[in-house]
Design goal:
The chain is built from 12 helices and 10 strands. The protein has about 270 residues and is an alpha/beta fold. The chain has a single domain, classed as P-loop containing nucleotide triphosphate hydrolases (Rossmann fold), CATH 3.40.50. A 6-stranded mixed sheet has the order 6-7-8-3-9-10, sandwiched between helices. The protein binds adenosine-5'-diphosphate and magnesium ion. The site of magnesium ion has 2 residues, from α2.
Amino acid sequence: MQPDERNTIDRGLTTAAPLVTLRNVSKLFGGVHALDDVSFELRRGDVVGLVGDNGAGKSTLVKILSGVFGPSSGEILIEGERETLTPPARAQRHGIETVYQDLALVSSFTVAENFFVGRERSWGRGPKLFQIMNRRSMTSTAASALESLNISIPHLKNRPVERMSGGQRQMAAIARGAFWGERLLLLDEPTAALGVRESREVLELVSQLSQRGLTMLMVTHNLEHLWSVCNRVIVMRRGRKVADLMSSETTMDEVVAYITGAKGPETLSSE
Ligand SMILES: Nc1ncnc2c1ncn2[C@@H]1O[C@H](COP(=O)(O)OP(=O)(O)O)[C@@H](O)[C@H]1O
Ligand SMILES: [Mg+2]
């Protein structure tokens, strides 16, 4: 950030700055407006459900916040300061973690090892990671993080995650995200690959994390899931934010109307 930008921002701050601010963020892929002038703020402790039809821009938004893509235009502020989040390691250094629907853990590693994958910079470099790290301290750190969340995963020290259930893996991925993500945990369809019982366990974990004050943004297709954990809902349609509502002040029917375009900015229906 340039000093003059910082002055501008500081002058604008009258109250505690939101955790994350998106200001007029657009993302173009070739001619496709994956995100079109999206603005919103995430305040500490918000648990926001992000919904919208296929192709609405939800994953692109998550990837902008997780540092996979930079915006084509617009800006991102972290606690009032303009920041670049790319590449993902940089977003992580800002305390932003992401859990994807496809259970992105390394299959051949144990849960304990997975807790530290991608953290090579904090611990040394590359393939030497597990030689450098004290194996016992790694395992006990992962174990106590899981324990503090009341997650019990048998054999976390010696069973590769490929031999665990999808639900257990997703819980481990979320626990890892909560462990490293001091500011924001992004969840892109965390229950999409799971059955009913496993989804319920994952949602219980999300709501437990929310009670601890963790700020989360969760993409979901399932409005029941959204309502069970989120205090706020943002609806995307064709790259644009068409609604931003407190869940207590809206209904699933109204959210569906925004998703389908039955309700929302007039310009969208004429496109
Ligand atoms: N890496 C990419 N390259 C080109 N187009 C992309 C890329 N990622 C997303 N898109 C396009 O951007 C739009 C929004 O996609 P996405 O954010 O994945 O939507 P959602 O997650 O809501 O289904 C879609 O039209 C999609 O085809
Ligand atoms: Mg998506």
